Amino acid sequence: PSPPARDPHTPPAMAAAAPSATALAGAALPLPLSARPQPARFSVALPRTAPPPPALRLRSVRRLAAAEGGTPGMKETLDKVVSAHKVVLFMKGTKDFPQCGFSHTVVQILRSLDVPFETLDVLANDALRQGLKDYSSWPTFPQLYIDGEFFGGCDITLGMYAYALSAWYIHAASWT
């Protein structure tokens, strides 16, 4: 009999292992969804270690807002929004339906950390989108604000997440 057709969603490493599994069993064995790698979820406080690299430090919204551009009304509105919520993500789409991969990545990071957060869709309002670029001096989206301070975009959030996870693993290794 011919081998079963490869599922296009099956990772190549799993697809390569499938023929050997069928040879052992003598029949085709479907790979369950649970066999696919799942992202780790952490909801623990990470230990305090060395300070993050300078490129990953928070930048004050007040300092960024002092930069040129934007209307006074927009600046005041954005000041209120970022100070009214602990974590705010200005993104393309919504947290339930992100419209770009970078926004999706930041949403997944925040969810994996069990962080409650608010989102605003910048695609719904051109003035908001341009006003935020001027407000933060950051040209791309998503833009993450924590405790009223601009944290960064996807690259900085992902870098900080990886930095925190590596610090957690190093600290956890010292317990054993």
UniProtKB/TrEMBL annotation:
GO function terms (MF aspect): 2 iron, 2 sulfur cluster binding; metal ion binding
Keyword Metal-binding (UniProt): yes
Keywords, ordered alphabetically: 2Fe-2S, Iron, Iron-sulfur, Metal-binding, Redox-active center
Family matches, as Pfam families: Glutaredoxin
Database matches in CDD domains: GRX_PICOT_like
Residues covered by the Glutaredoxin domain: 87-150
PROSITE patterns: GLUTAREDOXIN_2
Organism superkingdom: Eukaryota
Protein family: Belongs to the glutaredoxin family. CGFS subfamily.
The protein's role, per its UniProt record: May only reduce GSH-thiol disulfides, but not protein disulfides.
Protein name listed in UniProt: Glutaredoxin domain-containing protein
